[in-house]
Amino acid sequence: QVQGMESGGDSLHAGGSLRLSCTASGYNYPMHCMAWFRQAPGKEREGVAATRADHYTTHAEFAKGRFTIYKDNFKNIAYLQMDNLTPDDSAMYYCAANLGGTCSHRDQVFTFWGQGTQVTVSS
Question: For the segment 45-81, what is each residue's pLDDT rounded down to a tens digit?
Fold first, then answer.
């Protein structure tokens, strides 16, 4: 069974950077698609970025220029590099993965989900 495990969440001040990691274990081949979502208290979950095994990526508009998703196919790890963070980026960040199908942060139909890692940005 594939499991996802996120790490890297932290509390920091605005303007800082974080790198989140998501490891998809239990599958011996590169995961077709891995993505990051986030959910702040009282808000709906929203897509942040997605990356396919061929390194094709999509990023939400708010993430472009500040966040970068990339994937280590050999280790089945997806990273989310986040720079110039603001308090609006505070949320629980979730990793998701699929073995096939489309690959976009706009789609929330993912088979595997992690437990989340908290990011808190103070002003």
Answer: 999 999 999 999 999 999 999 999 999 988 889 999 9
The two structure tokens encoding residue 36: 């990051």
CA–CA separation, 76 vs 52, rounded Å? 11
Residue-wise DSSP of 35-62: EEEEE-TTS--EEEEEEETT--EEE-TT
Q: Among the residues of the chain, which ranges form H helices?
A: none
How many other C-beta atoms can be found within 10 angstroms of the C-beta atom of residue 36? 28
Contact 80/68 with Cβ under 8 angstroms?
yes
Q: From 2, 32, 47, 51, select the one nearest 100 (Cα to Cα).
A: 32
Residues for the chain: how many in total? 123
Would you state the structure tokens that stand for residue 118, as one six-digit string? 């908290």
